[in-house]
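SUBJECT: A protein chain and its fold
Encoding: whole-number codes for local backbone shapes
RECORD BEGINS BELOW THIS LINE
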Amino acid sequence: MNTPYTESRPIVPRASGAAFTGAVLAYGACWFFSWVKHYSNQACETTDGLCFTWWDVAVLPLTFATALITLIVVYKQLSIRPRLAVIPPTLLLAPIPLAAAQSSAGWWAATLTGGAWASSLALTAWSRYRVLGLSAAAALLLASLVVLYR
């Protein structure tokens, strides 16, 4: 039962922790993708044809694995439950708003969007704030689709 009297800790620090974690993960992903692109450009500089490096192939699995492990550990420490209902949408849908923010305003916008995305989906763990969290996540997703496809 998710009532204010049965919660062990207030929700604001938990949602803030989720937002901070999302922002750090978004910044780390932007930095890692930028580094991989720079490394690939240097490694494939002398090649005229198609060129792939190991990092090009491994960038998405490494990013998702790191984010998954980080979210599991942090959400366990923040007592955000059920993690199975919160973490998959956070990971699977996050590239859409992050790509929109990155393409329109750069890494800092992607960092802020990552924090907003993680905190809005973390709010859905509590029945009292579920509508607010889903509304915020839907608004971010819709705005990012408008930015990507306008």
Observations:
- The mean pLDDT is 91.
